Amino acid sequence: MRPTAFIFCLIASLTVACRAKDDAATKTPDAPAAKQADNDDDNGPGVTLKADAQARAGIQVLALEETDLQPELIAYGKLEEDPSGSFVVRAPYSGTLRLAPGRAWPALGQTLPDRNAFGELEPRLQYADRITVSTQLAGARADLNTATAAVAAAQTAYTRALALNADNKNVSDRVVQEATAKLTAEKIREAAARYLIQVLENPPTVHPVVAERGGDVLEVLAQPGEVIEQGAPIVRLGHLDRLLARIELAAGERQPPAGAPTRIVPAGFEDQAPLPAERVAAVSGTTLLYRLSRTLPGLRPGAAVTAHFTLPAHGEQKGGDGVLIPRSAIVQQDGRQWVYVQSKADRFTRRPVSTDRPVQAGYIVTRGFESGDKLVVTGAQTLLSEEFKSKNEADTN
Fold first, then answer.
1. What CATH number was assigned to the domain covering residues 87-125+205-238?
2. Which among 367, 329, 322, 328 has a CA at the least distance from the CA of 348?
């Protein structure tokens, strides 16, 4: 063989050997990853995070336990005033509103006692009203004349009957009793006619505006100095310790049973004990009305609330066959709910979770989880971010 051909074969052999060595070096890092996936308990999506990184992220796990909690339905709504505890003070007749001496006009949030005279109404008599008053006065005077004559006749009849009865019972005691009753009735009619004439001849210059029933001021519908018509609303009062909760169920959600235990949690009062409530009406297929058994200081109509309905356990819903998944453990991805389970010291596997059996503390799950599974209850969102960060880096490389 010529030296040139020998040198060429040697160079070709060395090139093939180098390429084989490079390919082996490139494939070497993949072997541990494949092995790690084979050793995963779930072989599902997840993320690997070292102990120091877990500490920085605040990852906390909780061993699941069997629970016998009954499932709950959660819905949302708002508070309303109870119509049975509210009422409106109206103008007894047309006139001009005035402040009562030494009194302030009602303000929102103020509480008025029973029979509180908070204002005055100065009557306004128009021409037609004056004609009506004159007509009523003339009729009252005619009634008085008639009543006076009737009293005189009844008095004469009574005196005669009394004398005849005393003279050997020429008339019976019953005749005397009838004459007495007749005289009394005519005197009452005469007194009523005199009183009506007095009122019509001396109309009051002002009429007190009185809240016969006390309560909290919910609306101020008129102010001093305004001219209002008869029957116009002035102030609306109510009792804020009688509140209703209007609850809206999600579309397609079945109504809870009428006697299902219900707890209302107002927004901003989550640290307080839930308020028991009783259903008073089903307004529609998805709207329910509940009356709170008590209230909390500061609660007002319009406040947002969350309603928790304890549903009856039946069939597979009987307690003791599931685990409780806390709400803090759940993350959203691809339109589904997931949780992370610690399958190894540094490995967290993402599992789908069903949320169709809610309770106040989370969700009862009967499949896919067992007692003793180590569930990530704090930091699940961080793990989700790390998982997709790792995937994006792998795709880039």
1. 2.40.50.100
2. 329
